[in-house]
Amino acid sequence: MDPADGLIDHPHDVYRRLRDTAPVHRIAGTDGNPAWVVTRYQDVRDALTDPRLSVDKRHAKEGNYQGLTLPPALDANLLNMEAPDHTRVRRLVVRAFTARRVEQLRAPIRETADRLLDALGPHGTTDLIASYAAPLPITVICDLLGVPDRHRRDFRVWTDALVAPDPSRPQDAKAAVVAMLGFFGELLADKREEPADDLLSDLIAVRDEGDRLSEDELMSLAFLILFAGYENTVQLIGNAVLALLRHPEQLDALRADPKRIAAAVEEFHRFEGPALLAIRRFPTEDMTIGGVPVPAGETVLLSLAAANRDPARFPDPDRLDLSRDTSGHLALGHGVHHCLGAPLARAETEIALTALLERFPELALADAEPRWRRSLRARGLLALPVSYSGKNS
């Protein structure tokens, strides 16, 4: 049996086997084409900053796994760029995600969280993904970009179709891409007609006045911010709640000392971060990773999830420990491609968990076996059924 068998259904078990027996291992990607998966912490960390490993698809050899296939209007984004284009485009948007800017967003995020919890009522049962973990980040990122309310539910359906496609319905992913192209084209036209005080209007002004973004770059950047700003945070919130409910001693410790929430979020990132893999990379020359020769142009997948549970870096790594030293975890990447929205994702998760735990002292799983999405790319829940009760219920 190939040691990578079961990677989608039981990723942590498989990554443990690979770290022990084949830390740089050739697998089949979701499209059936080959790729190398790297699982040990030091190998992954070193590779994330190795200039010979490029995210630019022009370095890819035909017949290897290349990840999502998107049209140019959505594909000309930071995940596929190297310097100098990456530097130029990232500089235009990074100011929207600084720690100082995110601090200004904390009050509106808390207001949104409280409104969603108000809608649940004082007690009952709910799918916490659908009622809370998903609508919170989609509201925050859409408000930041200036996306109208009427499009927000559609966008969740589209992202789900891309991240965890149903093999029996391949047309859904294609339909989602077509729908998003139409959506972003219409949205950009509307913003040009009526600019507002939002990030997308600012980016359009940069494009139209300074010509520092191509039209494809503008649309692709809007897509990436909305896609990643929603997708990663909804999964992290859901994964964190599940981890706490499965580790009641850690939940009790957090309730006893709510000021530990920032450190706790870093442990949630390490323990069950939403990104299983960094964006695929392609060697620009023949090279060796972890003692294994990897030819130029072949696909390299760096497993952030495996690295974050490497016992050589994090003792007893399969145990959730909110007091752990998580410094150096790779859940948000490392190097020039470190997650642009990391400050916002951290703030949203801290606020979401704080508001939830304050509101409902009694919170429990309503399903002993929550279902995970079948995805090589993202670790997240299809649903999280819980029962809840407030202080005065």
From TrEMBL:
Q: Which domain of life is it from?
A: Bacteria
Return any one Pfam family short name.
p450
To which protein family does this belong? Belongs to the cytochrome P450 family.
Q: What is the name of this protein?
A: Cytochrome P450
